[in-house]
Amino acid sequence: MENTSTKQTNSATHQVISPAADCDRVNMILDQLVVGHEPTVEDEEYIVSHSEDCSPCFEDITKQQAFIGFLTSYVGRKGAPTTLPQTILSRLQVEMA
Question: What superkingdom heads the lineage (predicted)?
Answer without folding.
Answer: Bacteria
